[in-house]
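ARCHIVE CARD
SHELF: 3
SLOT: left
DATA:
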Amino acid sequence: MEPSDTAPGTDARTDGGSSDGTPGAPPTGPTGTGSPVPRRWARYYLENAPSLVWLLFANVTAVFVGIHFYLPSLPDVETLLWPLYMDSPVAVGLMALSLATLLGNLGNRLDAVATNRVLAYLHTLAFVWLVKTGLWTALALNLQVAAYFPDTWNYFGVLVTHLCFIPEAYLLPHYGRTTRGALATALALALGNDLLDYGPLALGQAGYHPPLRCDPGLVLVAGTVAISLLSVGLAARAFERPVG
């Protein structure tokens, strides 16, 4: 059954009204016009307590699944570098934190979601890390397809689950905004992460990229940098800026 425009537990105010019910007043929160995810779907899953809690639980679970994947290699990585090494757990962890900020808005529409500078940084980083990780995984698996295909989990399972990061990322513009500072920070961290992943290879040392069954080639390195730039560009296009 297709979600209706009105999520359970919310009233039937139109999108043109404000969160306090003032007719004709503009919404106080983001409208999600830059997202390909329909507003009615975002409202259903983010305003409805059971579905929001389910999404939050799924992301927290994914954090632990991701950490389990990295466990064998973690002893070889400096502890302070773990957040930049474990790409997938960090991406879904940021999304879980972002979703948790909506718990206090349950019972209200997305139009009423509070926005501030700190949240802009959180939502922007979550978006960039989700999109980057999803696209990078698809690129890495298919550049080295013989090393993974047709393994049911290591190819199909990993590919499908990580591609799901991308539509999930596009829920964020429905309740979050971004700023130039947030975008610049996301770009600096994404490119810094790329340097950490592949920079040591130029010195004949092991890089900090996610574990691969084959050595990364120049195509993957260049593709990773391009994906970082693309992810930040998509964030800039998807998110609205603060009002005023």
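SLOT: right
DATA:
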Amino acid sequence: MSFLNTQIPLTNQPNRASDKLQADPLLGFNFALKLEGDLAGFFTEASGVGSEHEVVDHKVVNDKGQEIIRKIPGRMKWSDVTLKRGITQDLEIWRWRQTVVEGKMSQARKNCTIEMFDRTYGEPVAIWHFYNAWPSKVSGPSLKSDSNEYGIEEITFVHEGMYREK
């Protein structure tokens, strides 16, 4: 029997567009930044969410007297997180950065959350929590009068730990 002559059994399950939206990993996502639970803005790009360990070579001698090298985890390093969006009139991230500029680090350090939404903006599809985050960089768009590109602003924050809830 050839593949072309094979019949595929049909199921009673409807093929809903909403099912495809939830399952399609190629759709664009949007991200909400919350500072201490309060919404600070929506962003179209997020990068740097993660961590890594330095790798240490540890020389040991096995029971046969041979020197071998074991790889062991060294210090943990949290990645800096960068969020980007089209420029808005909202100044919340600029105010947050200003507290760092003024040296008010006890006010600047905040627990924050990034929530990732699909195109339906229903429940978040992923949530990351960050401890003691503070903005190390905020930048606005390139200012060119002859450009027809969207103005993009970005924020980079550092933190002392994170975990993914969902």
